[in-house]
Structures are given as structure tokens and as C-alpha cells.
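Researcher: We're teaching a course module on how sequence relates to structure. For the next exercise, students receive a sequence and then see the predicted structure as C-alpha cells, so they can try to spot secondary structure elements on their own. Here is the exercise chain.
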Amino acid sequence: MSHSSRIPEFRRWSREARRRELAERAELNSDDLVLLDTGGIAAADADRMVENSVGIYALPLGVALNFQVNQRDYLVPMAIEEPSVVAAASYAARMVRAGGGFSATADLPVMIAQIELREVGDPAAARARIEAARAEILALADSCQAILVSVGGGARDLEVRHVTGSTQNRLVVHLHVNCRDAMGANSVNTMAETVAPRLAELSGGRVGLRILSNLADRRLVRVSASVPFAALTSHRAGPAGHEVAEGIAAASRFAEDDPYRAATHNKGIMNGVDAVVMATGNDWRGVEAGAHAYAARDGRYRPLATWKVEGESLMGRLEMPMAVGTVGGTLQVHPGARLALRILRVSSAAELAMVIGAAGLGQNLAALRALATEGIQRGHMNLHKRAVGDPSPEPKGARS
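Model: And here is the predicted structure for the students to work with:
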């Protein structure tokens, strides 16, 4: 059975034909297809997930095609309400595919637990005492997470930071925790609360906040793509491939030079990222917070992805935090999220992070190509008109 993500003319098929093809390629059964009609969740599930549940709010679920990451094909589920995103991501992945597909790496799934210590009389001496007790603190943290430790995760290191500002007498201890295939928020928060009293004793201070940081800069994903000039051209009349590449590179430089443009540049990346994060039941607010904090890590807000002309190709690179999981959390109670992971066929949180990063870089490419050629509104508004019942000609960015 073929698991290629290339399905020519898929956009022209009927909805039922697309579902049948998806069922065959992802090995879905009739019960799985029913989930696609219900939003992936029943009222009883919703009542378990949130307080004061009164109903279910659904988003369209699309499948982006053509994605090839590290020489493996993926059908990428995307939950999003904005027209053109799924089509644009599929089109971009097809362009990238012509250059060999996306290449990606992911750091170990290390999250940071922060323990704030207030009113520390001698921060330097307190820091030395905590660092000397490193092994004790890490063992104490692991003692409350037996299951995580049993699968190879757990506390790996600690860092003591003297964070000044409104007070000079604050220390912040970072626990670095390998969360394996979980996003890790619950485990990390429990560890922070477990070690906090001992850290207060060692520092002579008072415990403040004990919680994870969403700036997951120990858990980065890096994605690159090389797009041949020929893949950037359209079958319609238009600029040559090298002209399109130069236009995309110029747009990237604009984002590098101007934070106002960088914000919109990064929003385009997050169109792709968030749609997959949501479809797979992960915390898109946490991923958003980490992404934007990382973009401003040196005090200036910068683009998460950049594009340059290198030889006869356009080269794109993305680096950003990606704290996502394939076990635990919402996945325990949301059948639709579990179904999305089955469609993706990922085997680990790291693999999921790499595919999500590819979706972000691909969406960025599609947006910049549109901006560098016919403008963003033509394709976007044509699809918007179709969504509100006004069929219009197919936009260039919608080809899958």
C-alpha cells in the first residue's frame, strides 16, 4: 500500500472520494470516518475536558498533501478556519518536494521547570549551596515521577539564575526535565512543587512561583528546505523562477530588518504550525508563547524563518521551540486528536515536532511567494468567497 503524500488533483475530488482515499492510505475504519463528522469529540468528552461545558465548537479539518520530511511522506492534518492555509501548505510542500523535501532535526524533549526563590539574603552564597546539592535535587525531582523515569525521562540538570529587576534578592532555579513523548507540563509542574521546599531551605529564601516555562529553548526544532528555481514558477505566465526567489529573499530581509514586518512574517509561520498543533490535541497557546518569546530572545523581535538565494536554489531555514507530545494530556480524552496522530503516522514527539516545523516553514514559503508575485489577497480572497458561497476561479496557491 502506498503512503505517498502526493495525490494529484485531490482538490477536485468529491469530499466522499477524498475520505475514501484518506481511509485507504491511513488505514482508517468506518468508526474513524464517523469521528470526522462529529468534530472528533462527543459531548461527554467535552464535559470531562472543561468546566461548565455547554456544547462543542468545531473547526474544519483538512489534510495538507505533498509533505516529505527527512525522506518520509506525511499526510498532515490541519484544524483551522482560515481559507487558503491548507491549500498553500500543500502547494509549498510540492515546491519543496522538488528539491528533495524538508530536512529537520529536533532537540531532546527537555522542558524547563522554574522555581522562584524570594527574599534571598545572600544570592551568591545561596546559589553555591544549591549547585552543590545538584544530585540531591535531581533525585528528589525524579522521586515524584516514577513512570516518566521508567521510560527514560526525568530531571537532567539544574541552573540557578540571579534574576534582578524589581528586587535584587531573587533566585530562579531551572530544572531541565526530559519529558520523552509527552509535552510535559503536568510532570514538570509537579517536580517544581516537589523540590521547592528543599530549595527554599538551601537558599534561606521564600518560595515564590513554581511552574514550567513556555520558552522551551531547550526543545528546539530546526527545519530547512532547498527549492529549485524551476519549482517556483507557475504554469501560467509569470515571473521566472530566479525572480521569484529574489523576491522571496527580499521579503525575508524585510522581516529581518523590521519587527513590524517580522510579526506578520511569523504569523504566517504560525498559521501552519498552530493548525497541526490543534489537530493533534497539543497546546497551541504554549507553542505560540514560546515562539514569540524565542523570536525576541535577544531584545529585538526577529523572524523565526529566513530565506536566501544560494546558487540555483532558494534556501529556507526555520528554528523555533516546539513543545508538543504524542501521549498524555488532551490525547487521553480526545478521540479526534488521536485520529490525527494516526493519520500522521508519527512515532514520537520529536517526529511530530519536525513535521509541525515543516508545516510552518512551508506555509511561510507559500505566503512569501504570493507576496512576491501576485499579492496575498488574490488567492486568499478567492478561497474566502468560495467559503461564503461565491465560487471563483482557483488561486495559484491552491494547487495541491
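Model: If you want an answer key for the exercise: The radius of gyration is 23 Å. Residues 21 and 28 are 10 Å apart (CA to CA).
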